[in-house]
Structure formats: C-alpha cells, structure tokens
Amino acid sequence: MLLSLPLKHSFRDGRLLIQLDGPVDMKTVPEIRRTLLGAAKRREVKEIQVDFSRVTILDTSGVAMLVEIWRGLARKDGLLRLNGLSESARRLVQMARLDRVFAIVDDLERGL
Amino acid sequence: MGRSSLIEVCGLNSYYHKRQVLFDIRFGIQDTGITVIMGVSGCGKTTILRHLIGLKRTGPGEILVDGRDLGKFSEREMQGYRRRIGVLFQSGALFNSMTVSENIAVPLKVHTRLASETIHIMALIKLNLLGLTEFGGYMPSQLSGGMRKRAGLARALAMDPEILFVDEPSSGLDPITAAGLDRLILELRDALGMTIVVVTHELESAFRIADRLIVMDRGRILAAGSPEEIRASHNARVRQFLERTSDPRGVDPSGYLSRIVGSETMGSES
After folding, report:
1. Cβ partners under 8 Å of residue A73, min gap 6
2. pLDDT per residue as tens digits for the range B17-58
3. Do A67 and B112 touch (CB under 8 A)?
4. How far apart are CA A69 and CA A65, in angstroms?
5. pTM
6. What is the ipTM, given to two decimal places?
7. d(CA B244, CA B77)
8. Which among B108, B114, B191 has CB closest to A95?
9. What does the domain layout of chain B look like in residue ranges?
10. Best interface-test mutation with B: which of A24, A25, A26 has the largest number of B CBs within 10 A?
11. Residues B5-259, CATH architecture
C-alpha cells in the first residue's frame, strides 16, 4: 500500500496524486505528515501533486509539513505541486514566502 | 445587518479586593478586524484584557465566547479557549533562559503532537513573519526593546490563534519602532483575517490600527465607535483625552469633596 492513511489518491508514471479533505491543521498534520513523508521517500515516487480544493483549513503546521515533503522530494530531484489552494491558504503560503518554493498550479492533472 | 460578535462583553463588573474597578462594561468583539481599547493609565483597560484572556474570572453571563459563558467554563474548557487565543503581554513575557526560537516552540511542544522538525519550521516561519529570521538563536536579553516585542508577538502567534490580544504594543518603544509594530498588526489582520484586540494609551497607534475604538475612563466606557466617530465626539472627557489636555492630579473632584466635607453635606447641596 502506497499510503498509510486512507487518503484519496492515484499513482501513475512516478506521479502520486493526493486529495486532502477537511482541516489540515495542528490536530491532523501528525498523521498526514507521516503518510506523505513516507510516500515522498519511496523510490518510485518522483512527483507528488496535492489537491487542496476540499481542504477547509490550512494552518502553519500544514505549511511546515509541505516544506518537509518538498525537502524529501527535492533530495531526489522530485517535485511537489499544490493545487486548489483557497485564497487564505495562498496568503499564508505567500506570507511564509514559500510561493517561490512550491509549485502552485491552478489545474491539477485529473485522475483521482 | 451587523456582524455577529465572537466575544460579547455584557455587563462586566470587576473588583480588586472590595474596590470596584470596572462598571457595567458592554461591547462586542467582531470576527476579524482590530478592536482597540484605549484610555489613560488606570482606567481599567488592562483589567478588561485580563478578563478576556481568562486570567481574571468573570461572574456568570458577563463575557460570552461564541455565545457560551466564559464565567462557567470548566478548567478543561478554559484550556481549550486559551489554545484559541494568543497574547502579547506588555513585557513580552519571554523565557529568558531560552532562545527566541525555543520560546516560540514552547506552546507547540506543550499543546500539540507535532514532530520537532515541523515545530522547527513553524518557528522559522513565525520569525520570518516578524522580521526576526536572523535572531532565532538569540537570547531575549540580547535583543532590543522592539525586537523583544516582536519576539513576544512571534510566540503569541505560535499556535495560529483565532484571536490575538495585545497589551500596550507601543510602550517603551521609539515612534519608528512603534509604527513598525502597528504595521505588523495590520498585516496580520489583512493577510490572516485575524481578530485582534489591542489595549493602549497611545493615541496615534490607536487611530492607526483601529477598526473600532472603545474609550475607557475610570472603569467605564466613555465612547465606542469607528475612529471617525470617536474623532467627532463632543464628549468633554473624550475631547480631553484626544486633545491630550492634562489632568495632573487625575482625581475625581466630587470624590475628593465628598471625602473632605462629607458625603451627607455633598448630598444636601445637590
């Protein structure tokens, strides 16, 4: 099994597509982090695309988790793409000056 | 239709020993925006703040949070409420034996199950937000007054609070540093949509940041409204405060006279 949490996802050609749902905050981040970091470390995973369109809250712990996933992927020249960020989530990422680091896209590849 | 209040203060009275210091205080703190409580030293504004953050207990029904009575919160509910709020105390209230980064990490280590690396990155994000990226490894004693305030603010923001309470942000700061701190508070409102309550006696700072102003005098609300409404107030005490007319003795003449000539005599004269 690619993910330890029952997150909606698909995997094809080294690209893992994940849809997060609900709050990504200090309560939920420990489990989501474990799952996504585990996936980022797998040799066959070259890119992770995360769909935030169903995420209700993204707080700083969620942004910090994304930094960790980004680092894990960057070590093997992998890529992290974020899609569907709400206006407030975008602002948080911008305030952390991480909009220059993460690849933020408006359209995620379909396939979930 | 007006916006609903996140916190509703409804008839708050407060005492230190037997002395009443707040009298029937009523106002609402709306979701998002900056409410400034201002007034001269000793007017009761910090006492209101102490009630709002749960450091001084209220009587039943005096403060409602999301419609629930703060005075009836159990210890567990109070802990939950305190996790939703951030407080920047006048002194900054940093642990002197810890670096700035360690100070920011304290509430995250105590209240969450987050991994230490996640906490480390969160502390870096807060340091960047407050312009302190280079100073995470410094001890509080190595920082200037303005930097200590910003470090205190970074720690107050550690848990991504819904509501931020700030006590006298400008006190002890030069005007340029104080204006910088005000700008940061405005950025937090605009970028994060945060609800912020500031207590201050600094007029310039109050009018620079307030969406809503509450003017206090001798334990009572003298006036409340938008900055424009307060500026246009004809109330003599409000004008005295706005025009900085000095009241060197700071005494209520009627209180003095009743003491010196006796309240019965005063009563018979009126």
Report:
1. A40, A45, A47, A48, A79, A80
2. 889 999 999 999 988 899 999 988 888 899 999 999 999 988
3. no
4. 6
5. 0.83
6. 0.91
7. 42
8. B191
9. 5-259
10. A26
11. 3-Layer(aba) Sandwich (3.40)
